[in-house]
Amino acid sequence: MGLALAVGVLLDAFVVRMCLVPAAMSVLQHAAWWLPRFLHRALPHVDVEGEKLTREQARPAAADRDLLASRS
Fold it and tell me: What sign does the CA torsion over 54, 29, 24, 33 have?
């Protein structure tokens, strides 16, 4: 029974997760990441790498540059 479980884990880890899933995502391309609209609204937006913060900090600096350029 232990051997059967070990074979099952190896099949899952190597065949499914390292071969089949990447191949399916390659074939589906953008559709692999598609979410229904209701689910997209229901799930929280998690900004792990801080892109939103970077954009918010860059926006006032760009506005200041535009204001200074218009005064010149």
Answer: positive
As a whole number of angstroms, the distance between CA 12 and CA 46 comes to: 29
DSSP assignment letter at 8:
H
Is 0.85 surpassed by the pTM of this model?
A: no
Convert 15-52 to b/e letters by CB count within 10 Å (16 or more is b). eeeeeeeeeeeeeeeeeeeeeeeeeeeeeeeeeeeeee
Q: Phi/psi zone of residue 59: left (φ > 0), alpha (ψ -120 to 50 degrees), beta?
A: alpha
72 residues of the chain, pLDDT tens digit each: 999 999 999 999 998 999 999 999 999 999 988 889 999 999 998 888 888 888 888 776 666 666 667 766
